[in-house]
Hints:
Elements: H1 6-16, E1 21-22, E2 35-39, H2 44-49, H3 56-67, E3 75-79, E4 84-92, E5 98-104, H4 109-125, E6 130-134, H5 135-143, H6 149-152, E7 157-164, E8 172-184, H7 189-192, H8 196-216
Parallel strand pairs: 2-3, 2-6, 6-8
Antiparallel strand pairs: 1-4, 4-5, 7-8
Helix pairs in contact: 1-4
Amino acid sequence: MYVIPETLVDLCKKRMEPYNCEGFVYGKGPSTPEIMIVGEAPGETEIHNGMPFSGRAGKVLDEFFNYIGVSREDIYFTSTVRSRPYKIVHKKSDNNETFIKKYNRAPTMKEQLAHAPILDYELQHIKPKQLVTLGNIGLQRLVGKDYSISDVHGEVIHSKVRKLKDMDSTEWIVSDETYSIFPTFHPASIFYNRSLEKEIYKDLDKLKKLLEPMKKS
Length: 217
Ligand code: URA
């Protein structure tokens, strides 16, 4: 099991303090995984039990990986941001009392920059055979806004990835190493657009083929 240094976690928690984000979920998985999943950010379930992709989207993700015959033990799970970005909505109960509810939202660029050193570190120290990004946030964190998930899902991208120029910077530079990146939609996307499920399964067929020679080596 791979564990990032606690000093890095403390630093990034501090960088995140100005923002509406809660909890902290560590990446999870082996140090030489077959696949590294790069998601968006944890949700409510994940920040309560500390396990990446353990909520509703995680159940769907498990079905995807069952389909291609990859077990959780062969995957390192990480995400662009490691705390749950939330927005507060004031709601009214049936007896007209106002209460506050927190909803998940996509991480802002400032939040992505605050937690960037963690993913940079993981990419440098963990040697995944294949990166799999879920949704636009994970994809664009690695290769920038020229790439959009609806255009490139299911296509392998061989590319250097973005990393912070230095800890105090808001500027991205590119890594020395080149990675193999396979983008597909985020599993939660099917909750809002059921037709994406068919597209995802077509992507998974391609991912399965891509992984076959790696399994033999
Ligand atoms: N989405 C993510 O990107 N990560 C999780 O852990 C859950 C949902």
